[in-house]
Design a protein that fits this description.
The complex is a heterodimer of chains A (124) and B (410).
Chain A: E1 3-4, H1 22-36, H2 54-81, H3 89-123
Helix pairs in contact in A: 1-2
Chain B: H1 3-7, E1 10-16, H2 21-25, E2 45-46, E3 52-53, H3 73-81, H4 96-104, H5 107-110, H6 123-131, E4 133-139, H7 146-155, H8 176-181, E5 189-193, H9 203-209, E6 214-216, H10 217-225, E7 232-235, E8 242-244, E9 247-249, H11 260-275, H12 278-283, E10 284-290, H13 314-317, E11 335-337, E12 345-352, H14 355-364, H15 373-377, E13 407-408
Parallel strand pairs in B: 1-7, 1-10, 4-12, 5-6, 5-7
Antiparallel strand pairs in B: 2-3, 4-11, 8-9, 10-11
Classes of the chains: A mainly alpha (124), B alpha/beta (410).
Chain lengths: 124, 410
């Protein structure tokens, strides 16, 4: 059996500051479109139009890719548990403030419903 | 049924970036005359003054093809037809130097587009080509850039695109991955991108909708080791130099101006990951191909082919002339690896990237509809199991598995 030697690239091959190619530019553009469809908490907070180098492109690509994966993982988790995905703390506080009156109203409606049906039963 | 086909359980496809057949494998004609490589006395390209430029074995791993040779539709049209835009024109492959000259107006620099690698500089790709099966007539699907060509490998069509813009499939024609996981009985398929920092070129369609189909290269290595490889795997290389979790990651896609040796190491590591698991090695076929030629010379004119149901209008092509997807792009290096392939196999049949979903569909799922006209007319490179196999078409032809396959020190 033949063993073939495979030379490794030199250290100098690594150049993260190389201007990004049109291919990487298009990958960034694609991910920007994908990111636009994501809920805010999964977005990258990086300005894609300012990206010039491979390292900058790589950073953006990683953040959006991971964001998309997180969004899908959270959705899958909540599907199993049967509730909406957990929000981040800051948003959670605002959400609780928003949701309390609705929750109270729901409870009130539910309680009212019980009373009405109990009254109906008694009448019968 | 031939033993190699009977044993086959996994098809793995690695698609690299932007190198032509002659540029990478052209030197092998001197070793195996059946390989349709370079005859430097028979093929030249005119420079901007009309002087003939011969192919030369001077290709470097990096820092040579700067700027990135143009490979958008109008440039590839010039490369293939030599600048002839008249009716009834025939491809003559006479426009590579002209096209590269257009980018810098530097006559000497433009000649570098005719450089190729001598065999010794690419020990992995050339060893695999000589040891297993090389395809003499595997063309890019479109005379254009990456995204639309890669789409043919995933869908068997680019849905009318000839450029780098995102592709949003209308839904009628499913990707090969969707076909596999929705089949009855269900099949398994995965796209392994290098890491999340390199990610995938199949952004809009797959990553957005089906993240369970994606894995990293690290997972591929683990799946090989533990025998968990899906029925069909598609591997994407690292598209950028970046800081990874384990340090500096050099792009290994071989896209100019990325280092070609890094791609060699990557190919060798994929081959070894499969070969190091004896059970997997026995049951796997690995196809190594390139999405398109990247603007680099090749001497074989791409033939015409049955048109697709889509048409790119004159604005989209950038030439003012509509394109009906009735001609292939430039030839790319493509190799099929399996211990069931006779050493030195050279296949002269015509293929393009639509042959990938065509083969995988036929092999794992049988008949499937709807598919694009380009895919249904594409030839398959692995014969389906169960059917009567024509020996002339079966590349995995050996009765007993080879034990003399090479190893790489990666």
């Amino acid at each position: 059996m033949v063993l073939v030697r495979v030379p490794k690239p030199p250290k100098s091959a690594y150049d993260p500051n190389r201007p990004m190619s049109s291919l990487l530019r298009s990958q960034v553009d694609h991910l920007q479109e994908a990111e636009a469809k994501l809920p805010l908490q999964y977005c990258s907070r990086l300005y894609a139009k300012a990206i010039r180098t491979e390292a900058e492109a790589a950073r953006y690509i990683r953040e959006v890719t991971e964001g998309i994966h997180r969004a899908h993982e959270d959705a899958a988790r909540s599907r199993k548990v049967g509730k909406a995905p957990a929000r981040r703390r800051v948003i959670e506080i605002a959400a609780v403030a928003d949701e309390r009156p609705h929750a109270r109203a729901r409870k009130r409606r539910a309680a009212k419903g019980k009373k009405t049906s109990a009254k109906k039963k008694r009448k019968k | 049924m031939p033993a190699g086909l009977d044993k086959l359980r996994h098809i793995v496809v690695l698609m690299m970036e932007n190198r032509s057949f002659d540029h990478m494998l052209g030197s092998l004609k001197a070793v195996n005359p059946k390989i349709d490589g370079i005859d430097a006395n028979a093929f030249t390209n005119p420079d901007n003054s009309g002087n003939p430029v011969k192919p030369l074995p001077n290709a470097q791993f990096q820092a040579q093809l700067q700027p990135d040779p143009d490979h958008h539709f109008p440039a590839v049209d010039l490369q293939i037809f030599g600048g002839n835009t008249g009716a009834g024109r025939q491809p003559n492959m006479q426009g590579f130097v002209k096209s590269y000259f257009n980018q810098q107006r530097d006559a000497k620099h433009s000649q570098m587009i005719m450089y190729y690698f001598p065999q010794a500089k690419l020990p992995v790709l050339t060893t695999l080509a000589l040891e297993f099966a090389v395809f003499n007539r595997w063309f890019a699907s479109i005379p254009g850039p990456t995204i639309c060509n890669r789409a043919f490998a995933h869908y068997g069509t680019s849905f009318g695109r000839v450029d780098l813009n995102p592709i949003y499939p209308p839904g009628t024609i499913k990707s090969i991955y969707s076909r596999m996981i929705n089949a009855n009985p269900k099949r398994t398929a995965k796209v392994y991108y290098y890491d999340t920092t390199s990610s995938t070129m199949e952004v809009a369609n797959l990553l957005q909708n089906q993240p369970e189909l994606f894995g990293t290269y690290g997972q591929f290595l683990s799946d090989c080791k533990h025998g968990d490889l899906p029925d069909y795997s598609f591997i994407e290389p690292n598209y950028s130099d970046h800081q990874g979790d384990s340090g500096e990651e050099v792009a290994n896609d071989q896209h100019p101006d990325h280092n070609v040796q890094a791609g060699e190491v990557f190919m060798a590591s994929i081959y070894q990951a499969i070969k190091n698991n004896p059970q997997l090695w026995e049951t796997t076929a690995l196809l190594i191909t390139y999405d398109e030629h990247g603007g680099i010379f090749d001497h074989v004119p791409p033939p015409s082919c049955p048109k697709d149901i889509f048409t790119a209008d004159g604005n989209a092509t950038g030439t003012g002339v509509p394109f009906q997807f009735d001609r292939f792009g430039v030839r790319v290096p493509t190799i099929l690896v399996s211990p069931w392939i006779r050493k030195g196999t050279v296949d002269d049949r015509v293929f393009d990237h639509a042959s990938i979903p065509a083969t995988v569909t036929k092999f794992f799922l049988g008949d499937w509809s709807p598919r694009s006209p380009r895919e249904t007319s594409a030839d398959i490179f692995i014969e389906p199991q169960g059917a009567a196999v024509d020996p002339a078409r079966n590349v995995l032809s050996l009765d007993t598995m080879r034990t003399d396959c090479p190893d790489f020190d990666v």
